[in-house]
Write a structure and sequence with these properties.
Elements: H1 15-25, H2 39-52, H3 66-79, H4 81-96, E1 105-114, E2 124-126, E3 131-141, E4 146-153, H5 162-173, E5 179-182, H6 189-196, E6 201-204, H7 221-230, H8 244-263
Parallel strand pairs: 1-5, 5-6
Antiparallel strand pairs: 1-3, 2-3, 3-4
Amino acid sequence: MNQPTRKPYPSDATDEDWAFVAPYLTLMTEDAPQRRYELREVFNALCWIVRTGAPWRYLPTNFPPWAAVHQQAQRWIAAGCFEDMVHDLRVLLREASGRNPAPTAVVLDARTLRGTPESGHRAGYDGHKRTNGSKIHAAVDTLGYLLALRVTPANAQERAQVGHLADAVQETTGNTVELAWVDQGYTGDDPVEAAEARGIELIVVRLPEAKKGFVLLPRRWVVERSFAWATRFRRLAKDYERLPETVADLHFLAFACLMLHNLLPPPSASP
């Protein structure tokens, strides 16, 4: 594997990482006449952006030009490369933990991302969080691995997204999902009926009546941990992108990085 001539960043793909992700990213041959920059360095640059949260134009000059990185990232997003990585890594990690490759239960939830000038044209106001921005609706399996994700204005109701997430989950898993745990924000007949129409039973996990302070809800905590994993990538701490598709797929990229490092040993580990 070719190593970059510059001093490496912590976000760079290791040789083991690159051996796994390269087949997903190679949309044309390495010797194609259109290619001016090494594909691995373009991917490293994108990982640096997502990990640090820096603006595209602030990409260090020892990477390929930011415009080339952004353009290639949009090609990868359009091709679904990062989603494919996550789905295959999820199968490998589930099998490694003794689980069935395809889950039968999922957890749904949403979090609000504060908007920025780039995303302001599609933002909404979340009265509960008192935040103007976007809402990330996610479905994860019971290990916390991402299955589906949808980006809406922050004023969109969680319960209205159940049908969209259920469709995506069943398409991804091959209609193996039977249960979905949710919080009280999904209470009502409409989300239950939307889930049932896709063969999924919606189970609302309620807070205890006499709660004091933080309460760890059964099953529900898994998706909260997944959101916490995502916020380790500073580009996902706010809604910095103009397109919701970019926000969604950068989440898949972040999960691919996290899952890949969970699957592969660090470079210093013994074989």
